[in-house]
Predict the structure.
Amino acid sequence: MSGDARIAFAQNRLDEARKEIRAAVVDFSVTDEKLLELRANARHAYEELRELDRRASRRLLGFLKFW
């Protein structure tokens, strides 16, 4: 999987995790434990996307010797 495809996949995962959280927040039948689990999943997806983006920017700007 190429770098751009990984970033797109990670962005989709983050978007889905955010949608799940939004739906769970307004559904009062969702337990607090489940909500915390959804938040942890979203946080993990965000961290993964941030790391992939950081790596991509390093490769992109590597020729300028900024990093």
